[in-house]
Write a structure and sequence with these properties.
eleven-stranded mixed β-sheet, alpha/beta, manganese, binds pseudouridine-5'-monophosphate, 301 residues, Indigoidine synthase fold, Pseudouridine-5'-phosphate glycosidase, Indigdn_synthA-like, globular
Length: 301
């Protein structure tokens, strides 16, 4: 096992055997501008505490894997430049080389599992990019869900993606995709789509029991819980469609590829919606954190 630096409150929760929710850091370094990124990270941590669990924000700082960031470290990470965006492929190399990196959904799942944490809250997972039939750009988040036993609570896959193909791939990989409290899948900034949810669950207990059953059956991997953004915070899909199309064509024209695509699109959509996409993103992450805390508590029963 590699050494892990736990924050004081995470170390305490581990000692007491109380519920912990993992949080990623790519959303801080690549998903939101400063200072909203740090403010949101703090709000989300407080939402988890208020719901009776302990937040564990994960990142690599100078080659050290951190599970739970002290406030000063969180603030520094939120303003740091040239932080690597880590996924399964480059996570170990960053630690080995003494680097600093933020963890995507895939890397956060790996770290959470190493630290014995069952539940993780984020905004939206990565997935199959539009045009993937030519670019082959498919997020490593999908493979990770298939192999690492962590429950990921997200507001769906980000709507900049090809959502039908993303959910096809999840099905092929054997990942349970659960819609929380509704029959259709949500689409990140929008609460609803016309895509039927493969599974629907209405309580944290149900979600925890389903994951425990998977483990008891020897099935690998986690579950994706898609939690719709609260109605009052959503941006309707019709409003967003032309904005997403414009951002995508600009990314294309500039030749943006691979790991840079998602941060570019999120940044452009923020500008084109005059900040509305960020307000929605903050609301949905907080909503996911609250549900994740309930699931983490249910997992301890
Ligand atoms: N959720 C958000 N904003 C983000 C992300 C999630 O609200 O920026 C990050 C996650 O870390 C996720 C990554 O793993 O976006 C997906 O990047 P890619 O499409 O390059 O795999």
């Amino acid at each position: 096992m590699i050494p892990i630096a736990y924050s004081t409150e995470v170390a305490e929760a581990r000692k007491n055997g109380t519920a912990i929710v993992a949080l990623e850091s790519t959303i801080i370094t690549h998903g939101m501008p400063f200072p909203q990124n740090v403010d949101t990270a703090r709000l989300v941590e407080n939402d988890i505490r208020a719901a009776g669990a302990t937040p564990a924000t994960i990142a690599v700082l100078d080659g050290q894997l951190h599970v739970g960031l002290e406030d000063i470290a969180l603030d520094a990470l939120g303003q740091a430049q040239n932080v690597s965006k880590l996924s399964r492929a480059d996570f170990a190399a960053c630690i080995a080389q003494g680097g600093t990196g933020s963890t995507t959904v895939a890397a956060t799942m790996i770290a959470a599992h190493l630290a014995g944490i069952d539940v993780f809250a984020t905004g939206g997972i990565g997935g199959v990019h539009r045009g993937a039939e030519l670019s082959f750009d498919i997020s490593a988040d999908l493979q990770e869900l298939a192999q690492t036993p962590v429950i990921v609570v997200a507001a769906g896959a980000k709507a900049i993606l090809d959502l039908p193909k993303t959910f096809e791939v999840l099905e092929t990989l054997g990942v349970p995709v659960i819609a929380y409290g509704q029959d259709v899948l949500p689409a990140f900034w929008s609460a609803q789509t016309d895509m039927a949810a493969p599974l629907r669950m209405d309580s944290a207990d149900e979600i925890a029991t389903a994951q425990k059953t998977r483990t008891a059956m020897g099935l690998r991997g986690g579950q994706l819980v898609t939690n719709p953004i609260p109605q009052q915070d959503e941006i309707p899909a019709e409003t967003l469609a032309p904005i997403i199309a414009q951002a995508l064509s600009e990314a294309d024209a500039r030749g943006i590829s691979s790991k840079d695509v998602t941060p570019f699109l999120l940044g452009r959509i923020f500008e084109l919606t005059e900040g509305r996409s960020l307000t929605a993103n903050i609301a949905l992450v907080r909503n996911n954190a609250r549900l994740a805390a309930q699931i983490a508590i249910a997992m301890m029963k």
